[in-house]
Amino acid sequence: MRGSFLTLQHACGNWNTNFHTRHRPVFKRQTRLRHPQFTMATPPRPGHMICTLVCSFLIWQLFTAGPGCRILTHAAGGEWELLLKNIGITAMHMQLLHNDRVVIFDRTDFGESKISLPHGKCRNDPKDTVLTIDCTAHSVEYDVATNSIRALTVQTDVWCSSGAVMANGHLIQTGGYNDGERVARIFKPCSSCDWEEVPLGLAARRWYATNHILPDNRQIVIGGRGQFNYEFYPKSGNARNVYSLPFLLKTNDPKIENNLYPFVFLHPDGNLFIFANNRAILFDYSNNVVVKTFPKIPGGDPRCYPSTGSAVMLPLNLHEGSIEVEVLVCGGAPDGSYTQALKRNFVGALKTCARIKITDPSPQWVMETMPLARVMGDMILLPNGDVLIINGASAGTAGWGSARDPVLNPVLYKPGKPIRSRFEVMNPSTIPRMYHSSAILLRDGRVLVGGSNPHAYYNFTRVLYPTELRLEAFSPKYLDSGFSNLRPIIISPASQSNIGYGQHVTVRFSVTGKLNPDMVSVTMLAPSFTTHSFSMNQRLLVLKSGNVKNVEKSTFTISVTTPGSVNLAPLGYYILFVVHQGIPSKGIWVQIQ
Predict the structure, then answer these.
(1) Given the DSSP bridges, would you call strands 572-580 and 520-526 parallel, antiparallel or unpaired?
(2) Helix-strand-coil percent breakdown of the chain, rounded to 5?
(3) pLDDT tens profile 484-514
């Protein structure tokens, strides 16, 4: 009994010194819980009585709290940092480029933003629905190294658009709203570069579409509001402009849709896995043929916009002779939630994930239960193969003012663990990230988090969830200082190195603590274009590696084989990490060509 008491007393001490001071809003929320034996207004008592009461409260909480009411969240790990109080716009869309700068944009018809265009410049757009002359920016570039913002000029409306990075590192963004719906835009990574626009770069209007980079270095642009088709960018001389995709029509719920921003992944066989609403196909885009039809997710609830869940293709392990491909879809809103939200009835979000091995001869969805229900969550692949589920709400759907109850706690999903033991609740933010929020992984292993604007314009007062201009970083627990002696530091190759396909590469790294050679791996990540809870082109490869050697004190080498084809890793820039016992190094940029 004494041992148990000391353990609980130690936990109480952690609350007072760490949890209460660092995560005050969550502590306040938890203290609203009441128990018949006492209230927070109880007057001071003798020391032993106070400890008895606190320990009783702890025991009661441990046995009665649901998965979303865990008090000792600090034990789960992860830290939040406010990077900038005001970036001038809301981070609706984000893309990390190979110069470690992040391109961020929202939309041009929000009205005036909180950051001016440089040198007295103004945007003159007679077709803009709010301001025909606007001297404020609606796109910025965030410099990770200096933690600073540079205003960018986007001419036409980029609202709810899509994009991908080409092999040369240029960001191609497509579509949007109003005068931007058929525009392609190019952003080249340099210190003074700005947006370039290609009017009528698209054959069809693309609003809420999804892009994916292809093995031949084209982008495919799929769907969008009222578009049950796809096209390619850039255009080739003999290609048709638009190709029909009846699957998008079949998955369209009348007056609701539930199939916008479809989840798209490049299969290692060169076909595309396309998920819309509550089902998926394997699609040969070159021949316009459905190769395989997958079953509906059990329960049939929608997972795509506006009943917005999220999805990732789990890491591809290139150690295996035959590569297994799995897709994980999490969260969303029950069928009918969008209609109910329009009536101001906010239905609880889905609490389930569905996982499917799409390389199986007869694939079936396996259902899992998250500790927290979530709609509009982002799913981010971490360098060690874990998945971070972050942002969103626990009731309602995407759309203007259509959600309630922000989910402040990220959740970690460990795909290699046994089922029912894969989820861990992380420490909470204090900032709601609702509709129009986003998150991306940075090269140092942090997750950049921004956005949230469930309003038709910038709105900072007298609303439940104001327009959010703050930029945060979430550091997963692998960045805790206690792991510094296990954390690898890559010595060579240098960042910005070129690699080829099927190439043998020696990676040199250091670890100050004791190295376990059986727990070293090398991963390669394609950074994503993230918007509306889906990270387009996100891809993590676990490279074939081995033969770890100790070459001098605290310095080691590992032999790595790069991906063997463009189907596994399309041409372009990736971040390469060395991972030791689940602790990743800071990544280096490599360009596979």
Answers:
(1) antiparallel
(2) 15, 35, 50
(3) 999 999 999 999 999 999 999 999 999 999 9
